[in-house]
Amino acid sequence: MSEAYFRVESGALGPEENFLSLDDILMSHEKLPVRTETAMPRLGAFFLERSAGAETDNAVPQGLALLPRLECSGVIQLTAALTSAPVILPPQPPTWLGLQGSKLELPLWLAKGLFDNKRRILSVELPKIYQEGWRTVFSADPNVVDLHKMGPHFYGFGSQLLHFDSPENADISQSLLQTFIGRFRRIMDSSQNAYNEDTSALVARLDEMERGLFQIGQNGLNDFQCWEKGQASQITASNLVQNYKKRKFTDMED
Amino acid sequence: MFCEKAMELIRELHRAPEGQLPAFNEDGLRQVLEEMKALYEQNQSDVNEAKSGGRSYLIPTIKFRHCSLLRNRRCTVAYLYDRLLRIRALRWEYGSVLPNALRFHMAAEEMEWFNNYKRSLATYMRSLGGDEGLDITQDMKPPKSLYIEVRCLKDYGEFEVDDGTSVLLKKNSQHFLPRWKCEQLIRQGVLEHILS
């Protein structure tokens, strides 16, 4: 830990993310499933990135009628390509993204930007872990769940999901809170009692926010132990300096 | 997907262990700015087309690109700002003179910012405590004694003490020196504070 470096904290648990926070930027890069309500032309580069679960409605999408240079067979090919998986299409002329009603996975920042109350461009679906099924798992025993695998920003992402006005918002927020309450005791215990040992097993199943808490607990423990040993008044080279010295600089003059 | 390069910049900073300054990724930054320029131009032409031809189907696309532009901007600003926070920490941890290796990791503008910061800090410190000023980067931990025992960790050379005598700092030699003179060197890792 560097004593003088104070990074911008994450605001994801509150109403809005912090603009400058690196943690929040990483968190909002995670994807969630959306359903497009209208087509978005000229974004052909995106076809190469679509998830394998893409489908279209059976009715001919609104935009298809205007697709340039596609005859009938081309349309059928396109529809077939969209329903098969994995979806790796050959380079296309700049064409339509998200024919109306198709399912995509977009990052949170994009979904937030395109979302509005009337759902003109997108409507958002909840990721699995915030839905009913997983919520009951969390309420049964929060401690056994591997939150790192479930998307390493479980709490932050879940809190920001509440912006999308889903009817299940109240349940989601309750579930987030209760899960955290259930897990907190163990985090606090382990962080306060693991001194000078390898903690990777303890943090393996914690999400990013919990890992931050664990680290704070460890810092407190280390500071206290240092004080107990009488080392609190010892001037030390900061960790920053020690880390710089360990790295091998190819162009360092001596 | 847009904004991938910008995310790479962010991840690079996030990966650097707490507080360290990686090299300035000028190339990456340039690519992000080029992507922003391309997005902006595409949007401009689409907006003109939408306004003149009354084609409202382009609006979701314009919004999409606009979101990507905002995201790129956010990533670059956060990248630059976090680097400045790390550089500021360097002044407090290392002192005014940075090792050359670190200087190579900084862009010219960052170096200039560092110099300005140093100057502001120095002006502020001079304005405290009456005539001589007060060095607030000293005594980060409450001092217990005026003189301290130190051991040299690497060869440093001659070191002059207040009353004129100079001390030769050779590796592994031990000295009993005034605290305020050696604090800087201890923090830089040249000396080691020994507790009796």
Helix content of chain A: 25-40%
Strand content range of chain B? 5-15%
Cross-sheet strand order for the largest sheet of chain B: 4-1-5
Domain count of chain B: the total is 2
Give the class of chain A from helix and strand content and strand pairing: mainly alpha
Number of strands of chain A: 3
Low-confidence stretches of chain B: none
| Number of contiguous helices of chain A | 9
> Architecture of the largest domain in chain B in CATH?
Up-down Bundle
- Compute the gyration radius of chain B: what is it? 25 Å
Strand order, sheet with most strands of chain A: 2-1-3
Helix proportion of chain B: 55-70%
By DSSP (H or I, 4+ residues per run), the number of helices of chain B equals 6
Provide a concise account of the structure shown.
The complex is a heterodimer of chains A (254) and B (196). Chain A is mainly alpha-helical. Chain A has helices at 22-27, 72-83, 108-114, 132-140, 154-161, 169-193, 200-203, 208-228, 239-246, and strands spanning 31-36, 103-107, 122-124.
Notable characteristics:
heterodimer; A: 254 residues; mainly alpha; three-stranded antiparallel β-sheet; disordered C terminus; B: 196 residues; Methane Monooxygenase Hydroxylase, Chain G, domain 1; Ribosomal Protein L9, domain 1; two-stranded antiparallel sheet; 6 helices; 5 strands; 57% helix; elongated; chromosome (chain B); DNA replication (chain B); GINS_A (chain B); PSF1_C (chain B); DNA replication complex GINS protein PSF1 (chain B)
Characterise the protein shown here.
- The complex is a heterodimer of chains A (254) and B (196).
- Chain A has nine helices and three strands.
- With 254 residues, chain A is mainly α.
- The C terminus of chain A is likely disordered.
- With 196 residues, chain B is mainly alpha-helical.
- Chain B has two domains: 124 residues, Methane Monooxygenase Hydroxylase, Chain G, domain 1 (Up-down Bundle); 47 residues, Ribosomal Protein L9, domain 1 (3-Layer(aba) Sandwich).
- Chain B contains six helices and five strands, in the order H-H-H-H-H-E-E-E-E-H-E.
- Chain B starts with a helix and ends with a strand.
- The mean pLDDT of chain B is 88.
- The chains are: A mainly alpha (254), B mainly alpha (196).
